[in-house]
Design goal:
Layout: E1 2-7, E2 12-17, H1 22-35, E3 38-42, H2 48-60, E4 64-67, E5 70-74, H3 86-89, H4 97-106, E6 108-112, H5 125-133, E7 137-141, E8 144-148, E9 157-159, H6 165-175, E10 181-185, H7 191-202, E11 206-208, E12 214-218, E13 227-229, H8 234-247, E14 249-254, H9 262-270, E15 274-277, E16 281-286, E17 292-293, E18 296-299, H10 310-317, E19 320-328, H11 338-343, E20 347-351, E21 354-359, E22 367-369, H12 373-385, E23 389-393, H13 405-411, E24 415-420
Parallel strand pairs: 2-14, 3-13, 9-10, 17-19, 18-19, 22-23
Antiparallel strand pairs: 1-23, 1-24, 3-5, 4-5, 6-8, 7-8, 10-12, 11-12, 14-16, 15-16, 19-21, 20-21
The structure holds uridine-diphosphate-N-acetylglucosamine.
Length: 423
């Protein structure tokens, strides 16, 4: 069993290159199923969720070959009836994009119910509602999502009841080849929605308004393959910015779109960290003895502070003097990682959807777990700032979404390694 071992209190100096964005690459990979054709995708991160998705595409009959930074995929001829084992689809959330993709291309889909990180209940009612609005039947039956559009999919007006990234993506996938015009209201505005729309438009689709809360899609059946560069991962960038602020030192996080991480930059500035923003990089500077200021932060949909950065900022404020408040505005229960920080000495009380952090308590390395992907990143950040040695298990959860986290942090001077322990 492999674990990550970190010896803390070493300031970080150097440059970290950001990989392609997992949460943009996942819907784009499933969109290749919708389009059908030959693709060259640049910048796919080498993380478990992406490799699992490439496996799903292969099982559908699409050859996928990684050549250096490019991945070649051919979805021209697929077996539309190929069933993907439940054990595979349950390993991540994004597998439900196969429903929108297959429904859009073949008029029907039978896909296992997805898994993903445990943040409390994760309903898919808005996904099903969008398929139904476009003229399909859509139900969950015995562990599978079944959707079918016997008379084809027809453009329509979709009103979401809340802002959902996944439901917006599935609605776009299903509507792209539908007959006529679809309008999606209360759409999510995350950069990965824009990236998916740009990808599909490169394939011949007609999507406008992505990045706003109203997206319009004029259905188009004649789509084709393309070459496309995935955008940089704003959550990976934010994680390393936060890690540098926690450990101290001077780190350039390179290959980013600074606009996407403005909300994280703003919080670090508020805490007294120096952030020098350039065209495609941000430099984080914190003298190791510089005291951090307490903050209040609430995770909300983009362009607000991302819920996928909530655990990491909570780990950072453990080192800030005074009481910080970290609130979760998207998920019911995204504080399971708090117990791991408390194990290291943090003073945190969770009241409803807010973590109240009494900063400045001495943190010491011990044995902790990655309870989910970003919760795993939070314990890494805490360990970099803590006294002594931290041993982190369940690291496959971290590797679902971070491309070479150990190598990238070691590259800027962290004392971090991946160690095999006997079972
Ligand atoms: C995606 C991200 C996840 C991130 C989240 C919010 C991927 C693979 N995952 O998850 O990392 O934390 O966006 O930025 O990209 N909801 C419903 N009904 C639905 C759908 C959602 O009630 O049908 C609720 C959820 O319970 C949650 C909120 O809407 O409270 C937002 O969920 P959503 O944006 O859909 O998250 P995901 O797309 O699953």
């Amino acid at each position: 069993m492999d674990k990550i071992v970190i010896c803390g209190k070493k300031p970080l100096y150097g440059t970290i290159d950001v990989s392609g964005m997992k949460n943009a690459a996942l819907p784009i990979l499933f969109a290749t199923v919708l389009v059908g054709g030959k693709f060259v995708l640049e910048n796919l991160p080498d993380v478990n969720d992406i490799n699992l998705t490439l496996k799903i595409l292969t099982l559908l009959g699409a050859p996928c070959v990684r050549r250096g930074s490019a991945t070649e995929i051919d979805t021209t001829h697929l077996d539309e009836n190929a069933e993907i084992p439940l054990s595979l689809v349950k390993k991540m959330r994004a597998s439900y994009y196969l429903v929108g993709a297959k429904l859009g291309r073949y008029g029907k889909a039978h896909v296992g119910y997805p898994g993903g990180c445990d943040f409390g209940t994760r309903p898919i009612d808005q996904h099903l509602k969008s398929f139904r609005t476009l003229g399909a039947s859509a139900e969950v039956n015995g562990g599978y999502i079944d959707a079918e559009a016997k008379d084809g999919l027809y453009g329509s007006h979709i009103f979401f009841d809340m802002v959902s990234v996944g439901a917006t993506i599935n609605a776009i996938l299903a509507a792209t080849r539908a007959e006529g015009m679809t309008i999606i209201e209360s759409a999510a505005r995350e950069p990965h929605i824009v990236d998916l729309a740009n990808f599909l438009n490169t394939c011949g689709a007609h999507i406008t308004g992505a990045g706003t809360d109203t997206i319009k899609i004029r259905g188009e059946k004649n789509l084709h393959g393309c070459s496309y560069d995935i955008i940089p991962d704003m959550i990976e960038a934010g994680t390393y910015m936060t890690a540098a602020a926690a450990a101290g030192g001077r780190v350039v996080v390179r290959g980013v779109i600074p606009k996407h991480i403005e909300s994280v930059t703003a919080k670090l500035l508020e805490m007294g960290v120096t952030v020098n923003v350039a065209d495609d990089s941000v430099e984080i500077v914190r003298e190791p003895d510089k005291e951090l200021t307490r903050i209040m932060v609430k995770a909300v949909p983009y362009p607000g502070f991302p819920t996928d950065m909530q655990p990491q900022i909570c780990a950072l404020v453990c080192g800030a003097k005074g009481t910080s408040y970290v609130s979760e505005g998207v998920w019911d229960n995204r504080f399971r990682y708090v117990e791991e920080l408390v194990r290291m000495g943090a003073h945190i009380l969770v009241e409803g959807k807010t973590a109240i952090v009494e900063g400045g308590a001495p943190m010491k390395g011990t044995q902790v777990s990655a309870v989910d992907l970003r919760g795993g990143a939070a314990v890494v950040i805490a360990a970099l700032a803590a006294e002594g040695i931290t041993v982190i298990d369940n690291i496959e959860l971290i590797e679902r979404g971070y491309d070479d986290l150990v190598g990238k942090l070691a590259g800027v001077g962290a004392d971090i390694r991946r160690v095999s322990f006997p079972d």
